Amino acid sequence: MSEQATPVFQIQRVYLKDLSLEQPNSPAILLQQEQPNVDIQLGVEATPVAEGLFEVAVTATVHTKIDDKTLFLVEAKQAGIFEIRNVPEDQMGGVIGVACPQIIYPYLRGNVADVVTRAGFPPVHLAEINFQAMYEQQNAAAQADGTVQ
C-alpha cells in the first residue's frame, strides 16, 4: 500500500470558539426557591477549512427558567480542526459526524459546567452523548426527507 493511500486522522487544535452567559432577571430571580426547568439543545456542524482540513464544532444551549423567567442562558461552541485525508468517501460522514464530536464534547461539557459554576449556580453536567446514534438518527431523518447527507 502506498503512502498516498494511508488514511490520516489527526487533531490539529481544539478550542472554545464561542461562549456566552446571560442572567437577564438577576438578582430578583435568585431569591426564588422553586426548582428551575432546564432545557438543553445540542448540535454538530462541520466546515471544510482547506484541503484535508475540517473544522468540527459541537454547540450546546442551556436555558434554565423558573416559570417563564430566565434564570440563566448559556450558549457554547467548542470546535476542533482535524486533518482527515485518504479516508473513503463512504466513511467520511462517520469520521466527521461521530469521531470528531466525541473528541470535542468532553471539552464542551467542562466549559459549560465551569461557566455555570462561576456564575454562582450549581454546575450543569451535560449528559454523555452517543454520537453514533445521533448521526444515524440524523441520516435516517435526512433519507426520509429525501436529503441524503
TrEMBL record:
GO BP terms, alphabetized: protein folding; protein tetramerization; protein transport
Places the protein is found: Cytoplasm
Keyword terms: Chaperone, Cytoplasm, Protein transport, Translocation, Transport
GO cellular component: cytoplasm
GO molecular function: unfolded protein binding
Stated role: One of the proteins required for the normal export of preproteins out of the cell cytoplasm. It is a molecular chaperone that binds to a subset of precursor proteins, maintaining them in a translocation-competent state. It also specifically binds to its receptor SecA.
HAMAP family the record matches: SecB (MF_00821)
Family: Belongs to the SecB family.
Assembly description: Homotetramer, a dimer of dimers. One homotetramer interacts with 1 SecA dimer.
Protein name: Protein-export protein SecB
Organism listed in the record: Comamonas aquatica
Organism phylogeny: Bacteria, Pseudomonadati, Pseudomonadota, Betaproteobacteria, Burkholderiales
Gene responsible for this protein: secB
